Amino acid sequence: MYIAMNRFKVIKTEKAAFENVWLTRESRLDEVPGFISFHMLKGPEREDHVLYSSHTIWASEADFLAWTRSEQFRAAHKHAGGQKPLTIGHPEFEGFEVIQTLDNPRLKAQTPSPAAPSPAAA
């Protein structure tokens, strides 16, 4: 498994515009082999920016690299840089190979399925 992250230093006054870009975009990640999940994270506020990070999980680094050369990648990034600056500088990329994953088995046992009513609702 491989985790690809981009860190964005978003200008404080552009938080809403930055979030809107991500929340309204057509990602097409689900069309790409090896894509597992995506999260956009909002981090701490600093003196001149708010830190955001995109966090994408791939089956392998090869799958991630194939995505960067895909039509889906080009489509997802076609408007990048087309509007006024929302960030301080360019995003900072970090890629990680997963060496261990731990899941909480008790959490899975306690989580009701979406189709099943919760005990309180019955």
UniProtKB/TrEMBL annotation:
The keyword Oxidoreductase applies. Keywords: Monooxygenase, Oxidoreductase. One of its GO terms (molecular function) is monooxygenase activity. This is Heme-degrading monooxygenase HmoA. It comes from Methylocapsa palsarum. Pfam families: ABM (PF03992). Residues 2-96 form the ABM domain. PANTHER family: SIGNAL TRANSDUCTION PROTEIN TRAP. The keyword Oxidoreductase applies. InterPro entries: ABM_dom, Dimeric_a/b-barrel, Heme-degrading_MO.
